[in-house]
Design a protein that fits this description.
The complex is a heterodimer of chains A (342) and B (503).
Chain A lengths: L2 H47 L5 E5 L6 H15 L7 E5 L6 H8 L7 E5 L2 H8 L10 E9 L2 E5 L7 H4 L6 E6 L4 H12 L4 E6 L2 H9 L5 E4 L1 H9 L3 E6 L25 E7 L5 H15 L2 H8 L9 E2 H21 L6
Helix pairs in contact in A: 2-10, 4-11
Chain B lengths: L1 H13 L2 H19 L5 H8 L8 H26 L7 H13 L3 H34 L4 H13 L1 H4 L4 H15 L2 E2 L6 E2 L12 H20 L12 H4 L3 H21 L6 H16 L11 H25 L5 H12 L8 H29 L1 H10 L4 H17 L3 H18 L5 H23 L6 H4 L1 H31 L4
Antiparallel strand pairs in B: 1-2
Classes of the chains: A alpha/beta (342), B mainly alpha (503).
Protein name (chain B): Putative tricarboxylic transport membrane protein
Keywords (chain B): Membrane, Transmembrane, Transmembrane helix
Pfam families (chain B): TctA (PF01970)
């Protein structure tokens, strides 16, 4: 396949969701109204259609990682608060920078009983490999917030600050999840912004990254606050920088990259998407289920706070537009880094 | 002994009538689930998970760990009775257990493997109770180079499973490596041979095992009109409870298997599989009758079976000390811990120590229940098989189809199972060994990824394999083993020449 065809293909898939958007907005609007009417008139019948069997939450990364703990917390809280009357199972479809999970979800087109956690890899993987699927093939449900990236080192390391780290002359090993992940992008941006010689090593899940840093197999890791929080609390790891624009409340002592003179402000988004071609009623029901959850106090206490997620919820078409914009940013960054597949 | 007093507190929590009943039921459910081809610990724990809502943390975790332990006992049953192992570690069990079954000693094979499972499980638990923090603090120093070498050692056991023709074994190993390359690769993010979307996930090796062994065996037996040797419907205790001579023969291999299983069970991904294959290789190597292996040798059955069960507590060590799961089963356990509101990680034992100790106490109890029920149920299993004997082929095919479907709840894996069923039949008919094939399918992708990770960690240099002490030790051991066997062979040849100078 030539490069030309590749670009052309992606462009045409990019345009189609925009065209769809108009029709979908009107459709969702009217069906949404009709839906309310339906629920009021014949609630039990509508309830029988979806969900009719257990819902499956699909994590594209291994157990113990960000996707997995998020979905498991969601599943537990949704069951505790009776937001849905069927059980929820969490399955891990790890590998291929979320390509495996995308393939899995794509194979379930039209079935609303699957909800997949997505992060930036949902955008990046289709750009860096040839999986033939991208975000617009799926049904975006909601973004629940953004998740900053931390630069962490082992507490026994000589690096006390980012400034000190930037003086390093040897090639440094950097751990993160998967090639083309946001950790990878942060690493590349860091190497570009400084004179550092960084060697990125892809691991399968945050658990492996944490182990590698614990035993000094890598010099530093780029990771979300969640998986490293306990190690920061117990002074086994030290965080040298955070990728948000301003310091966050949970980690007030961790300086941002920008205040240390390195221009990196790229954060992971955390969101949910459903299988392709599900009915608008089902999409509305899924959105309703998760947004109700996001408003509860338990969700704030048990997920948002401990994981240092900045809770900026958007849903439906607004989320789809956000994904489109994110893709443009990624296409540019990955292109600069010469990582685009075609 | 702080660990012991903690364990006693754990027992105090567990020893209520409700919890004892739960552990007992969990063990039985686990045994049945594990016995069905395709349903392993992951499926068992996942199925039970919804039942634990509303239970106390301790009861819920006892239910899940009981099922986990039970599936490890159950996995041997179909492997021995109908040569249909449900998971990779049970393949070795089938290798020695099924020949015993064919000789009419199936009940004894079940008895011996139940005892070996019990000892292995208990040994692993003892290590978990007393040494978990120590082992975990060393285990983190294992990284990609060590894992790669372990996978390489595991792959080397292909030689021992080869059977008569080295060339045939080499051929099926290469075929296995090829099959394992299907699907996406997380190191590069690239996808290989994904002709249909389902293949993006790669081929599920459990579907391959079900086809190769379960369906392949049925097809072969139909052609040969094999009749199972089931003995009389009424059993004397001596036929299924191992006596002094059997136990004597099984004792040393069981102990060796227990140690190996606990240690290698810690390795993430394929710890239990590598451990059982390595233990089988070890037993064959030091056996006085290596020619009997593959024909129903007790030491080849007991050792790996102990290994298999010792790997369960082994894989729990990184989970409860670091919050890092080492296998599919412990991955779901991790989810359960999170759902019970605990935070798995380095501080778990400090923040929720009482619950973790209750769970460990529950595992000890489950292990005793499982030994008892698995021995007492042997006549039931055999007589169940007798009832369905005339329709055995149909029943096994049905189980294979259901098992394959349940892997991802899609018909795709049924097709995979059918394809590999036919392949298994052709392998068996033409005397191609299946062990090397499946070992390559399971280990080759892990070896590949760990190798690339290791070289990346070494920043492009393979020197990392000799710079790290543990990795160097494994390398030296590998060289010594190869040198030892070459030297041994040369010496044997020389001895023969000295005895028969005219040849």
């Amino acid at each position: 396949m030539t490069a030309h065809t590749g670009v052309h293909e992606t462009r045409s898939t990019n345009q189609s969701p925009r065209e769809d958007t108009l029709t979908k907005i009107t459709l969702t609007g009217s069906i949404g109204l009709a839906g309310i009417g339906l629920i009021a008139l014949a609630g039990p019948i509508a309830a029988q259609e979806f969900p009719e069997r257990p819902i499956e939450f699909v994590a594209g990364y291994g157990p113990g990682g960000g996707h997995d703990t998020m979905l498991r917390t969601m599943a537990r809280l949704i069951e505790e608060q009776d937001l849905v009357d069927v059980p929820i199972n969490v399955v891990n479809k790890e590998g291929g920078s979320s390509a495996v999970a995308m393939g899995y979800l794509n194979a379930r087109a039209g079935d609303p009983h699957y909800l997949m956690s997505i992060t930036s890899s949902h955008i990046a993987t289709p750009l860096t490999s040839n999986i033939g699927l991208d975000y617009s093939d799926f049904t975006p449900i909601a973004r629940l917030g953004i998740d900053p990236e931390l630069l962490v080192v082992n507490a026994s390391s000589d690096f006390e600050s980012l400034e000190q780290l930037m003086q390093a002359e040897d090639t440094l090993n950097v751990g993160g999840t998967a090639t083309g992940s946001i950790e990878h992008i942060v690493t590349m941006q860091l190497a570009e912004a400084t004179d550092l010689d960084l060697n990125f090593i892809p691991f399968q899940g945050d658990g492996e990254v944490v182990t590698a840093l614990l035993s000094n197999q890598i010099d530093l890791a780029i990771a979300n606050p969640g998986p490293v929080a306990d190690y920061l609390d117990s002074d086994q790891f030290r965080a040298l920088a955070i990728s948000t624009e301003e310091r966050i409340d949970n980690l007030p002592d961790v300086p941002t990259f920008t205040e240390q003179g390195v221009d990196i402000t790229i954060s992971l988004f955390r969101g949910l998407t459903a299988a392709p071609d599900i009915s608008d009623e089902a999409r509305a029901a899924l959105t309703e289920m998760v947004t109700t959850l996001f408003e509860t106090e338990q969700w704030q206490d048990e997920y948002i706070e401990p994981n240092a997620v900045v809770p900026l919820v958007i849903t439906g078409e607004e989320f789809a537009d956000y994904l489109g914009k994110t893709e443009e940013v990624y296409r540019e960054t990955l292109g600069e880094l010469d990582m685009l597949s075609q | 002994m702080e660990a012991l007093s903690n364990l006693m507190i754990g027992f105090g929590e567990v020893l209520t009538p409700f919890n004892i009943a739960i552990i007992f039921a969990a063990g039985l459910i686990g045994t049945v689930v594990g016995a069905l081809p395709g349903l392993g610990p992951s499926a068992g724990i996942a199925l039970m998970l919804p039942l634990t809502f509303g239970m106390s943390e301790a009861s819920g975790l006892c239910l899940l760990t009981g099922v986990y332990m039970g599936t490890m006992y159950g996995g041997r049953i179909t492997a021995i009775l109908i040569n249909a192992p449900g998971d990779a570690p049970a393949i070795i069990t089938a290798l020695e257990g099924y020949p015993m079954m064919q000789k009419g000693r199936g009940a004894m094979a079940l008895g011996i493997s139940a005892v070996a499972s019990f000892v292995g499980g208990l040994f692993g638990l003892a290590v978990l109770i007393f040494l978990a923090p120590v082992i975990a603090s060393y285990a983190i120093y294992l990284g990609a180079p060590e894992y790669f070498l372990l996978m390489a050692v595991g792959l080397a056991t292909v030689m021992l499973l080869a059977g008569d023709s080295m060339l045939k074994a080499f051929f099926v190993t290469c075929l296995g490596v090829l099959v394992s390359t299907f699907g996406s690769d997380y190191v590069s993010g690239q996808i290989r041979f994904a002709y249909v979307p389902e293949l993006i996930e790669g081929i599920d090796f459990v579907a391959i095992i079900i086809g190769l062994y379960g369906l392949g065996e049925v097809l072969y037996n139909l052609e040969k009109k094999v009749k199972l040797e089931l003995g009389k419907p009424r059993f004397s205790i001596r036929e299924f409870v191992p006596g002094r001579s059997e136990l004597g023969e099984a004792a040393a291999p069981t102990m060796r298997g227990s140690v190996l299983g606990t240690l290698i069970g810690i390795v993430p991904g394929a710890g239990a599989t590598v451990a059982t294959f390595l233990d089988y290789a070890l037993e064959k190597r030091i056996s006085k009758r290596p020619e009997n292996f593959g024909k129903g040798e007790i030491s080849g059955l007991a050792g790996p079976e102990a290994t298999n069960n010792a790997a369960v507590p082994g894989s729990l060590i990184p989970l409860i000390t670091l919050g890092i799961p080492g296998s599919g089963g412990t991955a779901i356990m991790l989810g359960a811990l999170i759902m019970f509101g605990m935070r798995p990680g380095p501080l778990l034992m400090t923040t929720s120590g009482d619950i973790v100790w209750a769970m460990i106490a529950g595992l000890v109890l489950a292990n005793f229940f499982l030994l008892l029920s698995n021995i007492l149920l042997i006549p039931v299993f055999i007589n169940l098989l007798r009832t369905i004997q005339n329709n055995l082929a149909n029943v096994v095919i049905a189980l294979c189809v259901v098992g394959a479907f349940s892997l991802s709840y899609s018909p795709f894996n049924i097709w995979i199972m059918l394809i590999f069923g036919v392949l298994g039949y052709l392998f068996k008919k033409n005397d191609y060994p299946t062990g090397p094939f499946i070992l390559a399918v399971v280990l080759a992708p892990l070896a590949e990824n760990y190798f690339r990770q290791a070289v990346m960690l070494g920043q492009g240099s393979a020197a990392i394999f000799v710079e790290r002490p543990i990795s160097l030790t494994i390398l030296i051991l590998m060289v010594l083993i190869v040198a030892g066997s070459v030297f041994g062979r040369l010496r044997a040849r020389k001895l023969r020449e000295m005895r028969n100078p005219e040849e």
